[in-house]
Amino acid sequence: MTQHEIGPYSTARAMRDAVRAKEISARELVQLHLDRVEQTNGTINAVVSLDPDRALSEAAEADERLARGEDVGPLHGLPFAFKDTHEVGGWRSTSGSPLRADHVPERDELVVERVRKAGAITIGKTNVPEFAAGSHTFNPIFGTTVNPYDPSRSAGGSSGGAAAALASGMVPLADGSDMGGSLRNPASFCNVVGLRPSFGRVPQWPNPNTWETTSVQGPMARNVEDLALLLSVQAGPTSRNPLGQETPGSVFADVEDLSLHGLRIALSIDLNGAFQVDHQVAGIVGAQRAVLEGAGATVVDEAPQLAEAEDTFRTLRAWHFQASYGAMLAEHPDGFKASLADNIRAGENLTGHDVARAYRQRTALAERMRQFFEHVDALVLPVSQVPPFSADQEYPADINGQPQETYLDWMRSAYFITVTGCPALSVPAGFTQEGWPVGIQIVTAPNTERRLLAIGRAIEALTQAGQRRPSL
């Protein structure tokens, strides 16, 4: 592939290989993406704290290292914009909060350090909701990130800037984090791929709540193979986190070929009536039955019983937010959006018994999933219960006429899976009649990311939904 064949929608692997082969320089590749940002970001508002001069300077240094014959990393020369909740040394990192509007950390956090050491070139940050709370990306500093497929709609969140930047061709790879769906929901809304890994797969440092096990970091990309490339850099053991898994990240660099023939796949629209699902979303998810059966899989109408997931997630989320931001809220009572302040305060009255109950329920949920996956290879269900909603709303007011009382209600399809501890992959599946993207969530047993990625790539190749680009 020559320089002239590399474009903003080329795969990350093709871009990386072209830089290594000196068919395009890192500086030219970064400039190509900076041009794309200039063309599209004014509408989408996905990339923030952009610094073209610093990015081009980093790219020039990358070209010099390659010219000297030095060993280069697996992401050498690829432009990258980090989620604005992830600290990048020397770069403004606001977390979408006015309380951190001028925050410039001195060092990289681990997930950033690994990506930069692998050769990626920092061009800026990606937009987030305030402190990554909620699955719609807006904040008082940078405003709202909108959907590349329809700028009147939400890009999701909290990794909404990352997903929208990927879908717009502004970056070839992106990072994110996920507590209640923040990697998966924006991937579904923006027709890209997002992985919530098993806990400890991508170790976090520094983290004042290392032992809290609902929030993870992970990769996003436009296809499963590129996502696996980024996961191979993010994952792997570290002495800085006692819960990090020992499996080296390099095992994820290549996705194994897998036939769906003979696999037993459970398909569920609503986990046995556990939540409402928009009719069009339900239709797209239900249509996967024919896709899977056409590839030789056995599709069964089964779903695990996850009734405790509601109380478990909401208790642990409130506990986490109170521990993280309670002191800050007390000092700045008007410094938070109302929904986030309410969630923080919900943790104030939790008792040790409440938290213990939540963890006992997590244990029961995990055991139930272990038994479920003894006779099923994967579970397929909606990522989000709704298609992209209006960007003017904080969250969808109703689903099929049923009111959604809080900004969490419509995210059950994602956060019910969170508290099972299973890895979950969002893969493009289709579009509503309005042209809004809808993804499916593929779930496998804990610590089976290689298997999950192989299944995801096989389904991705069948649907081809991820090949449809926005008309920007």
TrEMBL record:
Residues 28-453 form the Amidase domain. Pfam families: Amidase. One of its GO terms (molecular function) is catalytic activity. Transmembrane segments: none annotated. PANTHER family: INDOLEACETAMIDE HYDROLASE, TRANSAMIDASE. This is Amidase. It comes from Aeromicrobium camelliae. The lineage of its organism: Bacteria, Bacillati, Actinomycetota, Actinomycetes, Propionibacteriales.
